Amino acid sequence: MHAITYARYGSPDVLELTERPLPKVGPGAVLIRVKAAAVNPVDWKVMGGYLDSMIDVVFPAIPGWDVAGVIEAVGVDAHGFQIGDEVIANGRTDWVHGGSFAQFIALPERLVARKPASLTWPAAAGLPLTGMTAFQVLNRLVVTATDTVLIHGGAGGVGSIGIQIAAARGARVIATASAVNHDYLRTLGAEPVTYGSGLAERVRALAPDGVSVVADFVGGVLDTTLEVLAEGGRHASVADAEVEQHGGTWIWVDPAATDLQALADLVDEQGLRVEVARTFPLAEAADAYRLSMLGHTRGKIIVTP
User: Fold this and answer.
1) How many CA atoms lie within 13 A of 257 on its CB side?
2) Closest C-alpha to 14, from 43, 47, 53, 42
3) Are 122 and 9 found together in one domain?
4) Separation CA 51–CA 57 (nearest Å)
5) Based on the domain organization, do 98 and 203 belong to the same domain?
6) Is the pTM value of this prediction over 0.85?
7) Residue 280, SS3 per DSSP
8) Where is the Enoyl reductase (ER) domain positioned along the sequence (predicted)?
9) Domain shared by 47 and 60, yes or no
10) How confident is the model at residue 210 (pLDDT cuts 50, 70, 90)?
11) For residue range 142-156, what is the model confidence (pLDDT) as tens digits?
């Protein structure tokens, strides 16, 4: 099969289009024909060796965790899916080796959920990691209709889903973004505020008594969080471990399919959107990585085999 691989840590220049054997399908696993795969910052951070102390990489490695595709084969004692089922997954396993930037990927079925019918293949591929990050953070913070929620990084992949989930629960949502993205945040259900100097004052102008929940999806905003959080409020971050020293929760997303399926169902029930910024063919995966590394793209960057 065609696959993108890298044989050593480095920049996107180490990515190559290669021929690899079809993945083996072990007990409790399924083989997925990849329709689309999403680029996430963690992909190029792993490739660059920045997470070497946390995650083992077996070279040559195929990058990519997020995938949307069709079940091609089912392993022994795997009973959740049938050949032809349309599925999605955050395919984070215990080590990096056989990822989603390929024509096929084999994954334990415990990581696989059914694709939301309302999403295109590229949008579905962009849902698992960012969507589950937002979903699990808001679940841990127990967001309900009684809350006023501040989301740091509202225009990003995680933040944009987080806005929609919180709004679907009836919460009031305030979210940060650059001015150019304010209209976009309004379409998602948030009251936008510009990030940067004076952010706490701008949030307080909208919520004089403070906010009851803060979800940080960007990092570097702990001082603002503490300044605007109402007494007894809850806060969590996916980017700043220091929140734990101030009563907050630092969260690393769990790829379990139970949450992913609940999120997929919510997408169909509430009409949640996943914005796709650009798609690349498999052979241009290095360019997709370079675009992601610029950090200015609104929406998901997708690779299609």
Assistant:
1) 17
2) 47
3) yes
4) 10
5) no
6) yes
7) strand
8) 10-303
9) yes
10) very high
11) 999 999 999 999 999
| 16-to-66, 68, 246, 262, 282 alpha-carbon distances in Å | 19, 22, 44, 36, 10
Looking at the structure, tell me whether residues 178 and 292 fall in a common domain: no
Residue 110 shares a structural domain with residue 13: yes
Q: What is the C-alpha end-to-end distance of the chain, expressed in Å?
A: 10
DSSP letter (8 states) at residue 278:
E
Report the alpha-carbon distance of residue 242 to residue 223 in Å, rounded.
11
- Output phi, psi for 163, to 5 deg: -60, -50
Given phi > 0 = left and psi -120 to 50 = alpha, else beta, which region is 299? left
DSSP 184: H
Residue 295 pLDDT: 83
* Per-residue pLDDT at 122: 98
Asked if residue 299 belongs to a domain, the reply is yes
84 Cβ partners below 8 Å, 6+ apart?
Answer: 70, 71
For strands 276-281 and 300-304, give the pairing: parallel
Residues 142 and 240 in one domain: yes
280: alpha, beta or left, given left = phi > 0 and alpha = psi -120 to 50? beta
Measured between alpha carbons, how far is 206 from 196 in angstroms, rounded to an integer? 16
How many structural domains compose the chain? 2
Give pLDDT tens digits for 70-90: 999 999 999 999 999 999 999
Cβ–Cβ under 8 Å, residues 80 and 23 = no
Average pLDDT over residues 221-225: 98
Q: How many CB atoms lie within 10 A of CB 26?
A: 13
pLDDT value of residue 220: 96
Q: Please answer whether residues 292 and 160 qualify as being in contact, where contact means their C-beta atoms are separated by less than 8 angstroms.
A: no
Mean pLDDT of the residues in the chain: 97
